[in-house]
Specification:
Length: about 525
């Protein structure tokens, strides 16, 4: 655990030191669970957003984009169920005065049982080698079976209690499992209470006439209320999707995991409208498609897993998370939900406007079903960033820190470095810079020794360094250094753009999808 904590601390400090993420309003000691994206962070974030957007909107002819406002009519949130049911069950520890999400405490306990089972499975795999059958082992080994069935029993009981609002039983479960406060080790808990996560605000100048509004807690509702507008003006035929990225706000109870759980964050959501009865087919389709999108970034297949929900939200008939192996363990990165016709029907009822789709081929009208894919941009950032940060020991025993970001997402694609600040080398370097920057973010750096400049670019995650030396003036060639392998190649200046493009252009990632 200590090691995990250290890795996570490194991630947070590296993000600050190399201009990726700063605490919000830091000169006033920051604002809890709110962060600013710095000069490199904003580029990485933009590239992740772009990769998502293009894979949705550009690569699917039946998906279009939208940018709805953050402020929406307050009835939206009544219809969506957020006013009545967007609650988290919270519990306080009386000794440490720390506040927790009761469901997260229980889920963490269940995950520990899962890890114990996994440890046994890993040991057995080592013992039995190639002939090992994991499924058979899980269903026959008494110890593994006990861990897994206890985990299932706990999660099912929690799901039932939350479903029926039996908060006393949620507390009873915490007590029976003897869950202690992670800060103080105390088991002295308050009762479990519901807490609404929406931020309220006011619209209007005078106190009497002001209208109570909410900052949107999800981007999805902006899509639902525009369903007919988009369908009619875009002449969209079912099945079709609407994609949107944008800020969402939640007054999270526990927000202590850097950008994993923020109070102001960004979502990338796509709502796919389908014919009723076909939703499970599309649900499976989007589960596979979204996992492939993640895998295309090359962060390692074993770092992802699906988690099918035992407790379904009030609007869903199936739901799964894609979980990622963050520095603090496997946690939700993306949600894929079959939302039925709940949202469109609810908005129809609350607005009094008919929200239906007329199918020209069958001559009938119906309320479409919806399959949603929803991924947090900030969580995606954390997944990419934390997975890429590595400390390496080199052959000569020295160490280097490298941020091996997927090249297509890197903030700066190449750094042009004149070996010395004289003899016409800066001039040639700037000429190269001028050409390459027509396509990508490229930077110029002439300060410090070349070795120091390489290390700095490694730490920022720049995939290429281009070094201009005295020979360059005569042979029109430069040294191209690859970040991950540190390989150095002599290449002609005229070939640079093409070589770099092969590595950094998103289109090569799209080809794998
Ligand atoms: P969690 O269970 O972790 O609170 P959720 O199930 O409430 O998440 P959704 O409502 O399904 O999350 O939102 C979709 C996605 O938005 C999540 O998969 C996550 O990536 C992102 N997200 C949700 N809440 C936050 C937050 N507070 N900070 C950053 N990202 C978030």
């Amino acid at each position: 655990m200590a090691k995990q904590d250290d890795i996570f601390k490194n991630v947070v400090s590296h993000a600050k030191e190399y201009g990726y993420i700063f605490p919000s309003s830091e000169i006033y000691d920051g604002l809890s669970a709110v962060y600013d994206y710095a000069q490199n962070g904003v580029e990485l974030k933009k590239n992740i957003r772009e990769y998502w957007w293009q894979s949705m909107v550009q690569m699917h002819e039946n998906i279009v984009g939208l940018d709805a406002a953050i402020l929406m009519h307050p009835t939206t949130w009544k219809a969506s169920g957020h006013v009545d049911a967007f609650n988290d069950p919270l519990i306080d520890n009386k000794d440490s005065k720390k506040r927790y999400r009761a469901d997260v405490l229980i889920e963490d306990y269940a995950e520990k049982l899962n890890q114990k089972a996994q440890k046994e499975i890993d040991k057995a795999r080592e013992r039995f080698g190639a002939s090992f059958d994991e499924e058979q082992y899980k269903t026959t080994n008494p110890r593994v079976m006990e861990y897994l069935s206890k985990k299932k029993e706990i999660l099912e009981r929690m799901a039932r209690s939350l479903e029926t609002e039996n908060l006393a039983d949620v507390k009873a479960l915490i007590e029976e499992l003897e869950i202690a406060c992670p800060e103080s080790g105390s088991k002295n808990w308050t009762d479990v209470k519901q807490f609404n996560l929406m931020f309220g605000t006011k619209l209007g100048a005078s106190a009497e006439n002001a209208m109570d509004l909410y900052l949107r807690p999800e981007t999805a509702q902006g899509i639902f209320v525009n369903f007919l507008n988009v369908q009619k003006t875009g002449r969209m035929k079912i099945p079709f999707g609407i994609a949107q990225t944008g800020k969402a706000f939640r007054n999270e109870i526990v927000a202590r995991q850097f950008i994993f759980r923020m109070r102001e964050f960004e979502q990338m959501e796509m709502q796919f409208f389908v014919k009723p009865g076909e939703e499970m087919k599309w649900y499976e389709y989007w589960k596979t498609t979204r996992l492939n999108w993640h895998l295309s970034l090359g962060l390692g297949k074993s770092n992802y897993r699906f988690h099918d929900h035992e407790k379904l939200a009030h609007y869903a008939n199936a739901a799964a998370d894609i979980e990622f192996n963050f520095p603090f363990g496997f946690k939700e990165l993306e949600g894929i939900h079959s939302r039925t016709d709940f949202d469109l029907k609810a908005h129809e009822q609350h607005s009094g406007k008919k929200i239906q789709y007329f199918d020209n081929e069958t001559n009938e009208s119906y309320t479409p079903y919806v399959v949603e894919t929803s991924v947090g941009l900030d969580r995606m950032f954390l997944a990419v960033f934390s997975n890429s940060l590595k400390e390496e020991v080199l052959e000569d025993g020295s160490e280097r820190v490298v941020l091996s970001l997927p090249a297509a997402l890197a903030p700066i694609k190449a750094a042009v470095l004149p070996l010395v600040k004289k003899d016409g080398l800066p001039e040639l370097a700037k000429e190269i810079l001028k050409k390459l920057r027509l396509d990508y973010n490229v930077m110029y750096e002439e300060k410090d020794t070349i070795g120091k400049r390489y290390r700095r670019m490694d730490a920022i995650g720049t995939p290429f360094c281009i070094t201009v030396d005295h020979d360059s003036l005569n042979d029109n060639s430069v040294t191209l250094r690859y970040r991950d392998t540190m390989e150095q190649k002599r290449v002609n200046i005229d070939e640079l753009a093409q070589i770099i493009d092969k590595e950094v252009n998103m289109k090569y990632l799209f080809e794998q999808l």
